[in-house]
């Protein structure tokens, strides 16, 4: 299937953003590890969050997904061993967060996934888990899923390299309250996507688990501490809106001119992607917050900027397509870890913006985007939801954009194309 997108004039729209995928994953896990029944309100219902829910059900949690709510019967940290391999499909968050949880099962657990999942590195997490009682082996190439997971989560002092993904850290933090002893987790370097660790700690706090951060000795190495005396307790938890999803509507206003008002966001969120408002402001948009509404308005031209986006990887594609229509070059740094996402997103930006008439120079950790005479093109997102959505909004500015496999957006934003049609007053043609 393909989607064809026509050029759109100035936009004017108000919509409510979907719930956060990151918070939904973590709330499901905390509720599954708690004692008693929790209610997760306003969860994101998407392919990825359904994968996490199904895996937790195979671990013995009771998952009752209702309209706008999930009722979770917790396990008090005592997980059952699934009879069959757990298929994580394309959800990298699920694979990484659940790898630590699998050590709470009595028997062996096999975690597997899609072909792309088997290309996404997990070695640093496995190395750290094997230091705290894990007996994890690779069933394919060393350093990559699928995994056979045995052993226990004993806790103790361990170091981890968070240079590929902060989810390695979040994974160990979330399992730690159900381990045998306190976890003292030393970070060998500053983590990529560091705000997601704050998201993890925030969710844990909402389920009554307190974590601590410190610096060890004179080395300056960051440490995160989770005492086993701090146990998950059931909660009624409401998931906040997703800044990653909102970025497409803010980007649409920047690309097409006009104004987009997005409801349901927490201006004080721990989500690193809320920096999208600051970035677009520096590019020339007018951005303001009124209650839970975030408003982006563009009336004049856009300017290229230099920005470090190491803490906000999920909006890099959004900023990249906006910068393709700006005046002057845009330099985006701190993004080496984008090569390990659902696709190689650095390659996706280089290949697809070039196909649309721009010029991109990429290195291991940076991109320099130079606008050109932009036009539509045929975009293969390679099953990456963020590539599909980002070039979808670019198509509203260029016209004649064709997106292959548009259904891949169901990974995080199942209603994206319907909402794009409503905002842009055009029909996205599928064939």
Structure description:
Helix content is 30%, strand content 25%. Helix 1 (21-33) crosses helix 6 (195-206), helix 3 (92-101) packs parallel to helix 5 and helix 5 (167-175) runs parallel beside helix 6 (195-206). By secondary structure, the protein is an alpha/beta fold. It is globular. The strands form 6 sheets. A 4-stranded mixed sheet has the order 22-23-1-24, covered by helices on one side. Strands 2-15-17-16 form a 4-stranded mixed sheet, covered by helices on one side. It has a 4-stranded mixed sheet with strand order 4-5-3-14, with helices on one face. The termini are close together. It contains 12 helices and 24 strands. The protein has helices at 21-33, 47-58, 92-101, 123-131, 167-175, 195-206, 243-256, 276-283, 316-323, 345-355, 385-398, 416-424, and strands spanning 2-5, 11-16, 37-41, 62-66, 69-73, 86-87, 109-112, 134-138, 147-151, 156-160, 183-187, 212-216, 221-226, 236-238, 258-263, 286-290, 293-298, 306-308, 330-333, 359-362, 366-370, 378-379, 401-404, 429-430. The protein has 2 domains: 2-18 and 241-430, UDP-n-acetylglucosamine1-carboxyvinyl-transferase, Chain (Alpha-beta prism); 21-230, UDP-n-acetylglucosamine1-carboxyvinyl-transferase, Chain (Alpha-beta prism). The relative contact order is 0.15.
DSSP helix fraction? 25-40%
Mean pLDDT over the full residue set: 96
**Main CATH class of the largest domain:** Alpha Beta
Domains, number: 2
- Strand arrangement, major sheet: 22-23-1-24
Give the name of the CATH architecture of the largest domain. Alpha-beta prism
The structure class reads: alpha/beta
Give the biggest sheet.
Answer: 4 strands, mixed
CA gyration radius, whole angstroms: 21 Å
Distance between the termini: 6 Å
Strand % is: 15-25%
CATH superfamily of the largest domain: Enolpyruvate transferase domain
Total number of β-strand segments?
A: 24
Low-confidence runs:
none
What is the helix tally? 12
What is the third-level CATH name, the topology of the largest domain?
A: UDP-n-acetylglucosamine1-carboxyvinyl-transferase, Chain
General shape: globular
């Amino acid at each position: 299937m393909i989607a064809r997108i026509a050029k759109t004039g100035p936009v004017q729209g108000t919509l409510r953003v979907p719930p956060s995928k990151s918070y939904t994953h973590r709330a499901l896990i905390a509720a599954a590890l708690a004692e008693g029944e929790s209610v997760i309100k306003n969860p994101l219902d998407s392919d990825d969050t359904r994968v996490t829910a199904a895996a937790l059900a195979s671990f013995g949690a009771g998952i009752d997904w209702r309209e706008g709510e999930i009722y979770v019967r917790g396990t008090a940290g005592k997980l059952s061993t699934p009879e069959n391999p757990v298929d994580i499909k394309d959800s990298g968050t699920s694979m990484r967060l659940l790898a630590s949880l699998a050590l709470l099962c009595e028997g062996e657990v096999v975690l597997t996934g899609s072909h792309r999942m088997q290309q996404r590195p997990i070695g640093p997490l496995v190395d750290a888990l094997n230091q705290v009682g894990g007996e994890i082996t690779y069933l394919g190439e060393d350093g990559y899923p699928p995994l056979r997971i045995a052993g226990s989560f004993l806790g103790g002092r361990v170091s981890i390299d968070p240079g590929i993904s902060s989810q390695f850290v979040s994974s160990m933090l979330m399992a730690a309250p159900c381990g045998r002893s306190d976890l003292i987790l030393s970070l060998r370097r500053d983590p990529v996507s560091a705000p997601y660790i704050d998201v993890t700690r925030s969710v844990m706090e909402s389920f009554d688990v307190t974590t601590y951060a410190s610096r060890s000795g004179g080395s300056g190495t960051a440490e995160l501490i989770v005492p086993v005396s701090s146990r998950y307790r059931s909660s009624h938890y409401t998931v906040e809106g997703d800044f990653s999803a909102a970025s497409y509507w803010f980007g649409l206003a920047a690309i097409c001119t006009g104004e987009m008002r997005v409801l349901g966001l927490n201006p004080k969120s721990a989500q690193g992607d809320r920096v999208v408002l600051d970035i677009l402001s520096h590019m020339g948009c007018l951005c303001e917050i009124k209650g839970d509404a975030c408003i982006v308005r563009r009336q004049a031209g856009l300017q290229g900027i230099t920005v470090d986006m190491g803490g906000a990887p999920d909006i890099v594609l959004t900023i990249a397509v906006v910068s393709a229509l700006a005046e002057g070059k845009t330099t985006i740094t701190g993004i080496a870890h984008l090569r390990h996402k659902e696709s190689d997103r650095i390659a996706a930006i280089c290949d697809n913006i070039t196909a649309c008439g721009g010029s991109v120079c990429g290195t291991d950790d940076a991109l320099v985007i130079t606008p050109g005479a932009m036009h539509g093109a045929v975009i293969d997102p390679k099953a990456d939801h963020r590539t599909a959505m980002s070039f979808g909004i670019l198509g509203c500015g260029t016209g004649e954009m064709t997106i292959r496999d548009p259904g891949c957006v169901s990974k995080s934003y199942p209603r994206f194309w319907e909402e794009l049609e409503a905002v842009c007053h055009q029909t996205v043609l599928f064939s």
